[in-house]
Amino acid sequence: MVERDLAARGITDEAVLDAMGTVPRELFVSEGLQRCAYDDRPLPIESHQTISQPFIVALMAEAAELTPASRVLEVGAGSGYGAAVLSRVAAHVWTIERHENLVESARANLAEAGYDNVTVVHGDGTRGLSEHAPFDAIVVTAGAHEVPSALVDQLVDGGRLVIPVDRDVASQELVRVRRVADGVVEEALGGVRFVPLIAD
Questions:
Q1: I need a labelling partner for 104 at 20 to 30 A (CA). Which of 19, 84, 114, 188 fits?
Q2: Which pLDDT score is estimated for 170?
Q3: Catalytic-residue membership of 87
Q4: Which of the following is catalytic: 47, 52, 70, 171?
């Protein structure tokens, strides 16, 4: 998977590639889908959500420009897979999820994988997690109508927000928003398709 679907398609961050090759994706999908765990496609999980395809997980992790000292917020824990990947690159990951059943399954999956530098929180991800801010990077795994100002406000100076943003009724674009002294700088990273970002 790492060679065929990631490196061959332009993922170059060695720490991200190592993380993608280390995290056991089969632990984060249902038993009936484990045979498909390393296919490069999204897979369904509980609450009508999905686990993102490996290439998109790697692309977002690379775009976040993480270091071993990074403090990261993920919005949309899902089954915990994205947070698991981020945790192999960063110092600590907080991941927030609005579906309580997914919170419990993400915690269980991460514990089974042995990853103890991830904190799973039940809440409204559009508001961020101000009590643990500021973050070096924020990764959002659902499509927003616009970039949430609450998330930008919780970045350190120079921090990166990686988020899918609706461009029209039929398309989304992955955007990296960098917080700078006089505002933000946005960079488009290509078309994507995510479930909607919903506020409680």
A1: 19
A2: 79
A3: no
A4: 52
